[in-house]
């Protein structure tokens, strides 16, 4: 009798291992759409994907193609297309905005940005391409200055 119970439990475990199911999250008890593995249905609430910073997103090891996140410092929904993160509109994922600080001249009181317009970082050397920024400033005279 004990062996019969053990065999019965083993058969149930083997049978349930091969079964697949669809999940519906609903307020009205309806079932999941046949083409969906997960079907979230609501007329009063939204879907909240994982929210993370760009730095947290970048440490996801081996992201699956189709993986979706909300980048909190990029302020956009992003999807991994198998080779790169793209925004959900289809363009390249944007980087988090650069934080610009003000620098005050202690002699004149003049206030300056700590980097060139469009630069992603403060210059570390005269050959630091990331600190060059945009070379054109609207309204600036053609005075030969970069």
General description of the model:
This protein has 2 helices and 8 strands; from the N terminus they run H-E-E-E-H-E-E-E-E-E. It has 146 residues and is of the alpha/beta class. The chain has a domain at 1-45. The chain has a 4-stranded mixed beta sheet with strand order 3-4-5-6. The chain has a two-stranded parallel ribbon with strand order 1-2. A two-stranded antiparallel sheet has the order 7-8.
The level of helicity is 10-25%
Give the termini separation. Answer: 90 Å
Uncertain ranges: none
**Biggest beta sheet summary:** 4 strands, mixed
Task: State Rg.
Answer: 27 Å
Question: Secondary-structure blueprint of this entry?
Answer:
Blueprint: H1 2-17, E1 23-25, E2 38-40, E3 51-52, H2 54-58, E4 68-71, E5 76-80, E6 85-87, E7 102-104, E8 111-113
Parallel strand pairs: 1-2, 3-4
Antiparallel strand pairs: 4-5, 5-6, 7-8
Briefly summarize what is shown:
This protein has 146 residues and is an alpha/beta fold. It is 14% helix and 18% strand.
Descriptive tags:
146 residues; alpha/beta; four-stranded mixed sheet; two-stranded parallel ribbon; 8 strands; 14% helix; elongated
